[in-house]
Amino acid sequence: MDLLNNLALGFGVAFTLNNLMYAFFGCVLGTLIGVLPGLGPVATIAMLLPSIYSLDATPALIMLAGIYYGAQYGGSTTAILINVPGESSSVVTAIDGYQMARQGRAGPALAAAGLGSFFAGCVGTIIIAAFAPPLTELAFKFGPAEYFSLMVLGLIGAVVLASGSLLKAISMIILGLLLAQINTDVISGVPRYSELPFTGISFPELTDGIGFVVIAMGLFGFGEIIANLGMPEEHREVFTKEVKGLWPTRKDFQEAWPAVLRGTALGSILGVLPGGGALLASFAAYTVEKKVAGPNGRFGKGDIRGVAGPESANNAGAQTSFIPMLTLGIPPNAVMALMVGAMTIKGIQPGPQVMSSNPELFWGLIASMWVGNAMLVILNLPMIGIWIKLLTVPYRFLFPAITLFCCIGTYTLNNNNFDVYMTAIFAVVGYLFYKLKCEPAPLLLGFILGPMMEENLRRALLLSRGDWSTFVTRPLSAGLLVASALMIIVVLLPSIKNKREVAFQDAD
Amino acid sequence: MRGTFVKIKSQRDFFSGLMFVVVGLAFAYGATDYAMGSGARPGPGYFPMILSVIMAILGAIVIFTSLTIEVEGGDPVGDIAWRPLLIIVLAIALFGALLPRLGLIITVPILIIVTSFAGKEFKWGGVLIASVVLDVFSWLVFVKGLNLTIPMWPSFIAG
Predict the structure, then answer these.
(1) Of B44, B100, B148, the CB nearest to A417
(2) Inter-chain Cβ pairs, chain A and chain B, closer than 8 A
């Protein structure tokens, strides 16, 4: 029984006092920064990287991992209570979670998110332990053409999800992909779009690309604040003060648990795929839940399935996204990229050999995730009362505080004020999008997947010597593209189109 | 209704489309600075150019639909909340400009006071208390707790 031996080894490592302490510290910090809008795990982990020099590799990675999945819990809290997704993967949670909070059902929404996440975290941990080796082989089968097609599928999922015009949603994805082109080309090393035309003024800061946090804070944090302040007093999008019943009702449980199961399954699968992870998982889970619910769902109006599904999925995805990072050394998202950086700092070469050369690190980290998830439920559910207290703070105190935390968050990204100025620009852009009814979520996804998409497109073309048919002649790639095409066709069918419009009628 | 001029049927979509077209053209113009490469060996300008062209085409389609498909009420863009927009943006920019010079201790109250003017009601009492509380909180959490390298004191004091 390899699995049991491996897990026994892992729990032996995770249950030492020292490692428990670091897991706890990571979880508390993760929850805190998840709750603080704009201060995400990417920034926090980046800031903490220098401090791990003094730690051993195992406790350091246990702590950083705790921050990551702790932030998934905390991020859903702010998404539900103040409609500011503390984490990109909580963007979809905000849609129905915030509506539930407005209807005075913040408690059940938070409980569904917390319990769903815990369940998903447990399953995700077992999946990593049991399937890491075979799943690695699945990921090995993906060439650049498959990666590219997979990302197309992910982006189309976001389109189906966006409210309002499909055409505008696709345009927003392309806009996101374009913004991601402001960087240094990975293949040729040429800096792109870092110079203002005609003036000769260049911005060396832009050669690293615009920070994801900068865009997310500008569009979601500040755009929303300005829009809220511009609304007449009574229409202002502030949560309601009466919160009736913190615990989900029987009906909530009945509705939520199948969603949790589906979200966990979907999240576990999508988390493994490169480019996936928590973000893609939550977006896809929301789409699935909405489709499953059909016309009976109250999606966009506070459906508990719209919280339970994505929150389970993003936690499962967060867990299983460790698989490509741990087994292949390929980071599927920004946080995993930082984890790879942390391993390198500690002198561990990320890649398939980690499992055999550092088994106590590999299995200890996995076991610590289960321990951490248990800690998070204990931390979060009894503390829901404290989050609810946040509801009574008047908005005139809240928005300056959010502004402050976002500003500090952006400043500490690179410790310079350039990111702060960029955020100010994106605040204007965010308000513009709000006024023009352009959904920013697809833009964000396009922005994140942009560089990977380009790299894989160009690699695939290099391999096929410029033959675009490589994307449809390779069966896996073709299958993914067909699935994307089917999604668009299904959404364009008149009967479904109408339902989709009804579902989003009140979401705006 | 047919007029002698083309009537905008959805204001929001029209301006969205315009925005997409302008961005598409701007990025396409920028992409001409970079090598396109060939299909078999794509250069740094290859992907941006493809995206820019798609962006401009999509924008044009959005404009077209905004001129042809009737939308109830004309979907107006509506009033722009200039006051919160300008004040919030100003506050963020001020924060960026002042933090390296005046440190967190002075920048936080300035940010809170300026930002609070964006709200409907402004009461000095509440704003000042919030400034002090958030100042101490930021110091405790970000400087002491998280140990971030944020300048705490004005540069003329810290040297």
Answers:
(1) B100
(2) 195
The closest CB to that of A177, out of B51, B147, B149, belongs to B51
Residue type, A179: L
* A173 vs A442: CA distance, rounded Å: 5
Residue B117 tokens, joined:
């003017």
Task: Say if the Cβ atoms of B44 and A229 lie within 8 Å.
Answer: no
Q: What residues of chain A lie within 8 A of the CB of B89, using their CB? A: 424, 427-428
**B74 vs B11: CA distance, rounded Å:** 6
Between CA A483 and CA A477 the distance in angstroms is: 10
Q: List the one residue out of A287, A307, A382 whose CA is nearest residue A103.
A: A307
- What is the number of helices (H) and of strands (E) in chain A? 23, 0
Determine the Cα–Cα distance for residues A459 and A462; give it in Å rounded to an integer. 5
Could you tell me the pTM of the whole model?
Answer: 0.70
Q: Position A486: which residue type?
A: L
Tokens, residue A449: 């997947």
Q: Residue A235 pLDDT > 60, yes or no?
A: no
Cα A364 vs. chain centroid, distance in angstroms?
24
B144-150 long-range Cβ contacts below 8 angstroms, 24+ apart? B146/A44, B146/A47, B146/A48, B147/A47, B147/A51, B148/A47, B148/A408, B148/A412, B149/A412, B149/A415, B150/A408, B150/A411, B150/A412, B150/A415, B150/B99, B150/B104
Residue of B nearest to A453 (CA): B47
Question: With contacts defined as CB-CB under 8 Å, which chain B residues touch A178?
Answer: 23-24, 27, 48, 51-52, 55
Chain B residues touching residue A462 (CB < 8 angstroms): 40-42
Q: Say yes or no for a CB contact (<8 Å) between A420 and B108.
A: no
Tell me the domain boundaries of chain A. 2-247+333-504
Asked whether the beta carbons of residue B12 and residue A435 sit closer than 8 angstroms, the reply is: yes
Cα(A206)–Cα(A329) distance, integer angstroms = 27
Query: Contact, A39 vs A405, CB < 8 A?
Result: yes
**In 3D, which of A4, A72, A168, A6 has the Cα closest to residue B64?**
A168
Cβ proximity of B105 and B139 under 8 Å = yes
| B52-103 residue pLDDT tens | 999 999 999 999 988 888 777 777 888 888 888 999 999 999 999 998 889 8
Q: Which of B51, B53, B111, B138 to mutate to test the interface with A (most CBs of A within 10 A)?
A: B51
List all residues 6 or more positions away from A438 whose beta carbon is below 8 Å from its beta carbon: A168, A171, A172, A432, B16
In whole angstroms, what is the distance from residue A261 CA to residue A303 CA?
16
**DSSP label at A217?**
I
pLDDT tens digits along A196-233: 777 777 787 787 778 766 777 787 777 777 887 877 65
Mean pLDDT score, A106-119: 85
Strand partners, A191: A184
Residue B36 three-state SS: coil
